[in-house]
Amino acid sequence: MSKTPVLDSIHSHEDIRSLDLARLKTLAQEVRSETIDAVSVTGGHLGAGLGVVELTVALHHIFNTPYDRVIWDVGHQAYPHKILTGRRDRIRTLRQPGGLSGFTKRSESEYDPFGAGHSSTSISAGLGMQVAAELRGEERNVVAVIGDGAMSAGMAYEAMNNAGALDSRLIVILNDNDMSIAPPTGAMSAYLARLISGKTFLSLRDVAKQLAHQLPRFFKEKAQKAEEFARSFVTGGTLFEELGFYYVGPIDGHNLDHLLPILKNVRDIDKGPILVHVVTQKGKGYPPAEHASDKYHGVSRFDVMTGTQLKPPSNAPTYTKVFGESLLREGRKDDKIVAVTAAMPSGTGVDLFQKEFPDRTFDVGIAEQHAVTFAAGLACEGFKPFCAIYSTFLQRAYDQVVHDVAIQNLPVRFPIDRAGFVGADGPTHAGAFDIGFLSSLPNMVVMAAADEAELVHMVATARAHDDGPIAFRYPRGEGVGTDLPDDGVPLEIGKGRIVRQGSKVAILSLGTRLAESLAAAERLDSYGLSTTVADARFAKPLDRGMILKLAGTHEMLITIEEGAVGGFGSQVLHLLAAEGMLDGHLKIRTLAMQDRYCEQGKPDDIYAQNGLDADGIIAAVLEALGKDLNAAMEAGELA
Questions:
Q1: Catalytic one of 30, 368, 516, 561
Q2: Which of 510, 528, 593, 616 could covalently link to 611 via disulfide, CB atoms 3.0 to 4.6 Å apart?
Q3: Catalytic-residue membership of 368
Q4: pLDDT tens digits, one per residue of 245-271
Q5: For residue 111, how many other CB atoms are within 10 A of its CB?
């Protein structure tokens, strides 16, 4: 008779806290298997979660969650956490429409005290929660779990510096799964970490510090240096100590025999802030992930037995690959071209350039602010930096774009990947706002590629443009299958193109909604509404001549873009208002993302829900013309 799985008995955090060590180890094995099986169905971020299974079990066993706050930085590693906190029955809806978020989300569970998506926010949020608890007189543990990659961002150190100055009792767990700040050395390392996290060692250390303060200055300095040297020799934690943290570690993050007593010590001591250095392995326990170069960071659906990802076959290249190949071609022509990425060389396509030109490629880590100003410095010295950052992550560096690039009119090139809706990653990763926040800047040129061929030309345009900053945006995923040119040809700045000529309705498209605009035009023509389609190409500067001509020669003008309200459509309205063309003669509609944060789902479905497909365009045209399609056709008003 088979035993009931331990995981089946977990209905609340009290169930986890009641388990003995042997059953906790079994629980960890079962959670790992459940995570693998769930992600094989949904796709998502697998490697990071597998690396923190034991840590997740230990945290929920030792700490009184959700009263005690556990904040997962980024959220990629939070799948095991979700399985253990009442969401196991929905875990196979991860990243699906109406399902669980791929990240932590406050509205989803009381066990998610802070929403995540962008990295390096956990320590700042945790410090705010800890200070709030202290202001209310509550004895609450706050634990921020942050990966070593996220520790490359300046925000993490800003928060640690503040925490050290406040001396708040914040617990930070550094999940070291890549850069191996220091390797754990088995039983001795665990013993030392357990020793220095205990009350006895802390008491002795405090006594030593008090004694040192009573000594003459020379002896006091020598005593402090000796104490610091001794601790750094044992633990390697000097950097964190200098920021005001008490350092514990390194600890094997997959060994519950080591983790549990150390976390218990950290929980029970009245000391803070504390940093616990835990060493883990991405993809732990699943050989295909352990052996993959990216440790299965992000995967599509896959076969559990083989690890083979089940991607549908396609001949169309992704926009990211088209950009990467175009940048490489341009780089071969011009040795002043350099590539800058913020920890996303493969995600942005920069890895293709990096393989051939490693000395001209700079991965600065998860540090978008630094990436932008670093690129500005390169531009000052005559280089041509392509600073490739996802739309959603460029938001993190907006001040640097304004202050360090645009005001100084420096020719930094910004390839903006993941523009528009991104599907399963949801609102934290949607590229919604870049058109608006870049188009408002003087000196900035903003382009949007209508298809893969246009993207090739825009890379060439960016290389040739040396009069100031220039940005070009393109979406995630595959293109429309357009034939690619052998080489890019620079576009004339601020000039769009007429793709299809009509007489009554004008559709002005920015970006890859051009294909849907053409499909809508075909159907509108069949209804007797002769339709022009134009590709704006530029959100800034606008093609004034083309837009004013469209407005003056058509009964209706409709703009469409893959961005938030306040972007391209607003720029067009501003132009038409300034030219006195909003006097009632022209019917105009601006189609953009709805004024709300999008939920996860398939991109095509989300575009349809936002009225940004052919059906949505047609509905907007008929509404503006005061026509109901069926009624108008029955009355003979439409063909």
A1: 368
A2: 616
A3: yes
A4: 988 888 899 999 999 999 999 999 887
A5: 19
Active site residue 284: no
Same domain, 467 and 541: no
Place of tokens 């000097």: 238
> How far from 346 is each of 56, 294, 343, 459, 501, CA to CA, in Å?
29, 10, 9, 18, 40
Structure-token match 């040809």, residue found = 489
CA dihedral (263, 268, 271, 273) in degrees, to 10, reads 40
Strand order in the sheet with 384-390: 361-363, 337-341, 384-390, 413-417, 470-473, 445-448, 538-540
380 plus 415 within the same structural domain: yes
Could you tell me the CATH number of the domain that includes residue 355? 3.40.50.970
DSSP helix/strand/coil, 87: helix
Are residues 324 and 287 part of one domain?
no
304: which 2 tokens?
A: 């559990």
On whether both 150 and 229 belong to a single domain, the answer is yes
Note the pLDDT tens digit of each residue in 606-634.
Answer: 999 999 999 999 999 999 998 776 666 66
User: Which tokens in the block code for residue 326?
Assistant: 């175009």
C-alpha to C-alpha distance for 284 and 177, rounded to whole angstroms = 10
> What's the confidence (pLDDT) of residue 184?
45
Same-domain check for residues 280 and 369: no
Of the candidates 231, 282, 284, 418, the residue annotated as catalytic is 282
The residue whose two tokens read 């514990």 is 248
Mean pLDDT across 572-583: 93
Distances (CA, A) of 625 to 170, 451, 588, 607: 61, 30, 10, 23
Query: What does the alpha-carbon distance between residue 126 and residue 118 come to, in Å, rounded to a whole number?
Result: 15
Mean pLDDT score across all residues of the chain: 87
Torsion sign (Cα): 186, 188, 193, 199: positive
What's the pLDDT at 636?
A: 62
Q: What is the pLDDT of residue 196?
A: 52
Assign residue 533 a region: left if phi > 0, alpha if psi is -120 to 50, beta otherwise? beta
180 and 142 in one domain?
yes
Instruction: Verify whether residue 396 is a known catalytic residue.
Output: yes
Q: Which domain holds residue 412?
A: 319-473
**By the 8 A CB rule, do 163 and 170 touch?**
yes
pLDDT of residue 229: 43
Candidates 118, 140, 119, 117; CA nearest to 128 is 140
Global pTM value = 0.85
HSE of 48 in the Cβ direction (CA atoms, 13 Å)?
24
Pairing of strands 556-561, 413-417: unpaired
